[in-house]
Amino acid sequence: MRSGRFPPDPIEAFSAARILGVRAGAAHRYTGVWVVVVEGRVFVRSWNDKPTGWFRAFLEEPEGSVQVGDRELAVRAKRVRSVRLQEAVTAAYAEKYPTKASQKWIVGFAEPQRMATTLELVPA
After folding, report:
1. Pairwise CA distance, residues 98 & 88, whole Å
2. Euclidean distance between the first and final Cα of the chain, in Å?
3. Which helix (H) or strand (E) is 14 found in, with range?
4. Domains located in the chain, CATH noted
5. pTM of the model
6. Residue 123 DSSP symbol
7. Is residue 78 within 8 Å of 29, Cβ to Cβ?
8. How far apart, in whole angstroms, are the C-alpha atoms of residue 78 and residue 82?
9. SS (H, E, C) 56-89
10. pLDDT (tens digit per residue) in 45-64
11. What is the pLDDT of residues 62-113, one digit of tens each?
């Protein structure tokens, strides 16, 4: 039975990670993405919605894996439709990635079409 949430140890690793490797299925390559933790839950967001990108790959095959630190964890991706959660993820990105160099990405992540690409990662 799936609990739907990661235990504290992986959550700490996700919180500390600047970049997370994500892969949908077993054939898709790992792609580096920013990761945030909100309310003890793990979220990622795509910069674009390319047909061959990792976001679409997860929509087609929700089971996959992530590389965080020296671990590889099996995950399942769930689309986030809640505006409240999408906004909380946007705020978490701004807090976690506050550098001047990151601002272009933070502003872009707040655009509605990018907010719609928010995925929650849960244990598979």
Report:
1. 15
2. 10
3. helix 8-16
4. 8-123 (2.30.110.10)
5. 0.94
6. E
7. no
8. 12
9. HHHHHCCEEEEEECCEEEEEEEEECCCHHHHHHH
10. 999 889 999 999 999 999 99
11. 999 999 989 999 999 999 999 999 999 999 999 999 999 999 999 999 999 9
